[in-house]
Write a structure and sequence with these properties.
337 residues; Rossmann fold; six-stranded mixed beta sheet; 13 strands; elongated
């Protein structure tokens, strides 16, 4: 079965074409998009092809279009900001960023009980990369975000932060509508459409996608290890992400279970005496509790000073740390090859 079709019909042909190009460039949105600015050509196409979602401008929508056998019709409004019902129709504000429109469309689509389309499930399961260290202030998150951006240059990559205090809202100057807590809740309530909900929540960082972290630290403590595993399994098997990066803190349930799910674990460490003592205690605990397998797939990273990491998240790939990670990945490819 082919990809689901999303059609956009707008009298402004430039708007429709640009939106189509944006969606079709995306590697993770499970729709093929067709753009129309002429009523006759749109109607001809709609009568011959099965359209799952239609985005149609307020000025273009007619009763004839409403009667077409299209599963979901969403009106692009020039006046109403945000998603709401207007005249019993779903409306989305037209003049906002394409990625925000896509998020609103995916959230709405995922929440429809009768959504049963084909989502282009992955042919192979994604690789889970763990980032964890018992040592604080070790550039763990900076390393994880840089690694994610570099990997995303080659494969679809998803970053998830499982720390109590990520600081992302302040770091990226964004107020997130949905976050990791919403994704877990949705999985427990209606997991069949989980990947669509995921696409409605993720945010871009260059080519890397990331799930906004939990706002409330207490939310992380209510998510069981089994729920984390179920979420990861769904994403690996049903999405187009080939790499999933888990940036883990210490206070999540099922930490060892998550570490055990990882294909590889990067553990940044520092050279000072206290940091080395913490790492020694962690490794000793792993041995005492029979978690030698976790240690076997853990790669300790001894960092020094990296120039350029202070120049902003978008420039991390051009820093010394970015060069370090590229060399690290090249060495691993040689070892695997």
């Amino acid at each position: 079965m082919g990809a689901n079709i999303m059609a956009i019909y707008d009298l402004d042909g430039i708007y429709a074409e640009r939106f189509m190009e944006y969606i079709n460039r995306s590697k993770s949105i499970p729709f093929q998009v067709r753009a129309f600015s002429k009523k006759e050509s749109f109607l001809e196409y709609a009568r011959e092809e099965e359209i799952e979602i239609l985005l149609v401008s307020e000025r273009a929508v007619t009763e004839e279009i409403r009667r077409l056998p299209i599963t979901h019709i969403i009106v692009l409004s020039e006046e109403t900001y945000g998603t709401e019902e207007k005249n019993n129709e779903k409306t989305i504000y037209k003049y906002q960023s394409s990625d925000q429109i896509v998020r609103e469309v995916m959230c709405y689509y995922a929440e429809q009980k009768n959504t049963t389309g084909h989502y282009g499930c992955a042919k192979e399961e994604g690789k889970i990369i763990g980032i964890y260290s018992p040592v604080r202030r070790s550039l763990k998150t900076t390393f994880a975000l840089t690694l994610g951006q570099i990997l995303s240059e080659k494969v679809n990559t998803l970053y998830m932060n499982l720390e109590e205090y990520s600081g992302f809202s302040s770091l990226f100057e964004k107020d997130y509508v949905g976050d990791l807590s919403d994704l877990i809740y949705f999985m427990n309530e209606r997991s069949a459409n989980l990947i669509l909900k995921l696409q409605g929540i993720v945010q871009p960082m260059n080519q890397l996608d990331y799930v906004p972290p939990c706002i409330y630290p207490s939310d992380l403590k209510t998510i069981s290890g089994e729920e984390w595993v179920s979420l990861l399994d769904d994403i690996r098997r049903k999405s187009s992400y080939r790499a999933i990066i888990l940036d883990m803190g210490e206070n999540i349930q099922g930490l060892y279970t998550l570490l055990g799910k990882c294909n590889i674990i990067y553990s940044p460490v520092r050279e000072d005496k206290i940091s080395m003592a913490k790492m020694y205690q962690y490794e000793k605990l792993m041995q005492m509790t029979g978690q030698e397998e976790i240690l076997e797939k853990t790669k300790k990273l001894h960092f020094t000073y990296f120039r350029g990491v202070e120049s902003g998240m978008d420039n991390l790939v051009y820093s010394d740390l970015g060069d370090y990670i590229r060399e690290l990945l090249a060495e691993e490819e040689d070892e695997d090859g």
